[in-house]
Amino acid sequence: MRRNRIIWLLLLLLQPQLSETLFPSPEDGWQIYSSAQAPDGKCICTVVAPARSTCTRDPRSKQLRQLMEKVQNISQSMEVLDLRTYRDLQYVRNTESLMKVLDAKLKQATASQKNLNTKTFQDLKEKMDELLPLIPVLDQYKSDVGMIIQLKEEVRNLSGVLLAIQEEMGAYDYEELQHRVLVLEQKLHSCMQKLGCGQLTGVSNPITVRASGSRFGSWMTDTLAPSTDNRVWYMDGYCKVKRVLEYRSLNDFIKGQNFVQHFLPHPWAGTGHVVYNGSLYYNKYQSNIIVKYHFRSRSVLVQRNLNNAGYNNTFPYSWGGFSDIDFMVDENGLWAVYTTNQNAGNIVISKIDPQTLEIIQSWDTGYPKRSAGESFMICGTLYVTNSHLAGAKIYFAYNTNTSTYEYTDIPFHNQYSHISMLDYNPRERVLYTWNNGHQVLYNVTLFHVIKTSGEL
Fold it and tell me: Is the pLDDT of residue 80 over 90?
């Protein structure tokens, strides 16, 4: 019987601990950790969704990789053997005429022993000396025969192992199975994109990427860049600074290498900058002017006053640092978080047009900005921490989709005790933070509600 049902999915967007890159290792695959039915008949699932996976967890895959390595080693040995055999064969062919001459002289000496003299013996000795290099060549042939026997035995063993794997796998072709897995992964990733938005329910332990710079700063990737673009931007300090470092990749950022410098026409204020679709959005120092700077053309595309927004430490976060205006990006686009005298110092959220920097719509959250440690946007909801120091937690959430708020109690491990930048990256679904001179990442857990129809 076909009828509508509501499926509640808890999608854990978990990434493994960072080693050199942000993304999981190939061994991590899609897993359903738990599945249960609630009293009201709803299905509750817990799913781990990594960035990618392959069949490498199959033990037969490990066997095949080992076999491929052995085959490659045997092929290399065969190539060396073939080259050496060809070289030695050429040498034997070149000495063939010499051996014929020597054979003729020996026959002549045997037929007419009376004509033997010192000169004849000297000629024979010289010819024999010319043949002496042939002895190590023949010795090498003996050694190569032993190697050939060994290689034949290894090939016989490999054939037996491959036959056993083939019998174990039955009628399925391994490459076909792997292709089917890849197709399934593509469908799962497509589904995950549809599940892009949800309510924040948890934050992972911190993953320290690097320790560098001063106590205050910001770092980020382009939230709208293609998956192949892994550049990292680094902005040390919170005021009177113009230098931005652009690293080629996250690995280069970790190692502190392969970067270019950009010098902005105006210094920045605060740490609430974002890189969005190839441009840097930031607050100009000692003003409420917001600036869009394009990296490729190295020019300011547009700048505009953010109407009535406080600046110059008028309405900063609790840690100060000229953090009056904070840019953010989530699944819905570009935002600015700030406050005004008209809003009595309460946090204002404004949706910003990324082309013109005009305000599209604004919301008054009613939460005092000076009481907030930091904040970030996920799926149109602003999440606010109650402190920038140790013991902080995510305490307040304002949903722009419904214009409602709620108080939350989501633990947040502030490992280095002083956060001066906290931003969500919707492309990678992680939180970027600058914590007391450390660049740190947090994974997030989102709760999703999806309506589907059909038999389940």
Answer: no
Angle, alpha carbons 43-456-40 (nearest 5°): 35
- Which pLDDT tens digit goes with each residue over 343-355? 999 999 999 999 9
Tell me what percent of the residues of the chain surpass a pLDDT of 70. 61
Q: Is residue 78 predicted with pLDDT exceeding 90?
A: no
